[in-house]
Design brief:
- The chain folds into 2 domains: 2-73, no CATH class; 77-110, no CATH class.
- Helices cover 46% and strands 24% of the residues.
- The chain contains 5 helices and 4 strands.
- A hairpin with a 2-residue loop joins strand 3 and strand 4.
């Protein structure tokens, strides 16, 4: 499942590229807040928007971006889950859960970086 969140733009390299060096050196408080956010939400950031905008975050107006995240791994359907969903459609036993599984699987494929 893809979740879109608004977070400080300065967190980009740390959250998207897992490169914490600059943030930890130049703004250790922001680094601590970004790490706390990751732990509390359990989300994994996979990309972010290019547009920066001023927005209210953590009680102050900050330069922010939209970040695109995956829910924790256990919530994401695997290829096997997808194959079972397709099989249930073929057998005529599909349900709302089948549709959700396919939608979530396709969404996670769409969020992968282009190679």
């Amino acid at each position: 499942m893809v979740t879109i969140v608004m977070l400080p733009a300065v967190w980009k390299s740390a959250l998207v590229n897992n490169d914490w060096c600059w943030l930890e050196i130049h703004d250790p408080d922001a680094a601590a807040k970004a790490k706390a956010w990751q732990i509390e939400t359990g989300l994994t950031v996979v990309s972010c928007g290019t547009l920066k905008f001023n927005a209210q975050y953590d009680g102050t107006v900050q330069l922010c971006r939209k970040y695109y995240c995956h829910s924790p791994k256990q919530d994401r359907p695997s290829r096997e889950d997808f194959d079972r969903a397709i099989k249930s459609i073929e057998c005529g036993t599909s349900s709302l859960k089948t549709a959700r599984t396919i939608l979530q699987y396709v969404e996670q494929l769409e969020m992968r970086p282009a190679s």
